[in-house]
TrEMBL record:
Residues 77-90 have a biased composition (Basic and acidic residues). This is Phage-related protein. It comes from Sphingobium cyanobacteriorum. Keywords: Signal. Residues 73-104 are annotated as: Disordered. The lineage of its organism: Bacteria, Pseudomonadati, Pseudomonadota, Alphaproteobacteria, Sphingomonadales.
Length: 104
């Protein structure tokens, strides 16, 4: 009789453990799904932030290139003005030198 009691207790314990095991498996599966969703959302969020950062960097590069173009154009205009002034000064100096030579 004692053997039957031990066998029945073992059977009930095994049945209880298998029920717990199913619950544990369900909980584990749910936790795994939640973790997977969290990771997926985090990756999507990080990807969106990276895209926004790259867009911002691209705009900054474009703005920098525009400013460089404008500065280059302004420097070229300044160089043309300076060259024109230098030519006029050299021309005036040459005319003065020629006039001085004629008057001597």
């Amino acid at each position: 009789m004692r053997t039957y009691m031990l066998a029945a207790t073992a059977l009930l314990t095994a049945a209880g453990l298998s029920a717990c095991s199913e619950k544990a498996q369900d909980n584990l599966e749910n936790a795994g799904s939640a973790i997977g969703n969290d990771v997926s959302n985090a990756v999507d969020h990080a990807g969106a932030k990276i895209d926004k950062g790259l867009d911002k960097a691209g705009r900054a590069i474009d703005n920098g290139a525009d400013r460089i173009d404008a500065a280059t154009d302004e420097a070229a205009a300044d160089a043309r003005r300076e060259a024109g002034e230098a030519k006029r000064e050299v021309g005036a100096s040459l005319e003065k030198a020629g006039s001085d030579l004629r008057n001597e």
